[in-house]
Design brief:
By secondary structure, the chain is an all-alpha fold. 44% of the residues lie in helices and 0% in strands. It has two helices and no strands. The longest helix is centred in the last third of the chain and has 30 residues. The chain is flat. The termini are far apart.
């Protein structure tokens, strides 16, 4: 039986010039988004794309809550 390989350490050298433009992360898409600049059709498309996944997540969460309290069947349906 052999022992697992040991992790090796890696030395990292930082530039002495301080922070530069290359050190800063690129801005994300969400940081560039201005919700008030969206047109009505863009908002409708966004809502259409988000409503499905959000409803599935909500239903799954409600189902888990019913399982936790021992009432898997919803009496309203």
């Amino acid at each position: 039986m052999t022992s697992p390989p040991r992790a090796t350490s890696v030395a990292v050298q930082r530039s002495s010039s301080g922070s530069s433009a290359a050190d800063k992360p690129a801005p994300s898409v969400t940081s560039q988004l201005k919700p008030r600049d969206l047109k009505e059709d863009q908002v409708a498309e966004l809502v259409h794309r988000l409503i499905g996944p959000m409803t599935r997540m909500l239903r799954a969460e409600l189902r888990l809550d019913r399982e936790r309290i021992g009432k898997l069947r919803d009496p309203r349906h």
